[in-house]
Amino acid sequence: MVVLTGEMILEFLxxxxxxxxxxxxxxxxxxxxxxxxxxxxxxxxxxMGAGRSGFVAKSFAMRLMHLGYNVYVVGETTTPKIKKDxxxxxxxxxxxxxxxxxxxxxAKSMVGSxxxxxxxxPNSSLAKMSDVVVVIKGKVxxxxxxxxxxxxxxxxxxxxxxxxxxxxLVAELxxxxxxxxxxxxxxxxILE
Length: 192
Prior knowledge:
By secondary structure, the protein is of the alpha/beta class. The chain contains eight helices and five strands; from the N terminus they run H-H-E-H-E-E-H-E-H-E-H-H-H. Helix 1 (7-26) crosses helix 7 and helix 3 (51-66) packs parallel to helix 7. Keywords: Isomerase.
């Protein structure tokens, strides 16, 4: 029989709370402003990430669709060709995920699309080729931190913090567009 002490759960929640508090004071609002401007001024928005960062990307794409943006998830069968007036937003803690780097390179060099990255690694390959870099501190898979590794293995802190940041960004965009939750409900899926 498993004996539940709850110790790890409470420690995880405290660690996440502290991590979010640190994000609140460390986020570069100038970069966030550039990301918002890029979203607002783009014809279409393409979003991608791999693995769990991909789930974060899909969640953000859904919210942008609810806000009325023309948005696509890279890799889906209904995603059209990206064009010069479009924005590609990539989400990658390491900024080195090969599939994401390769696709981003293609969008940048072949098409000339604007590139934004959400990453923990401001000196990564993705960051170096991006027009907008928003740094979300989080332990990436390659770092060694025994305490965090035991509580939140691999990229968990980056993924959770990115999700929270992007939901905060949605709130800002909701305000900028003068929309309400009722406006979002008009685009919410009913075929589910």
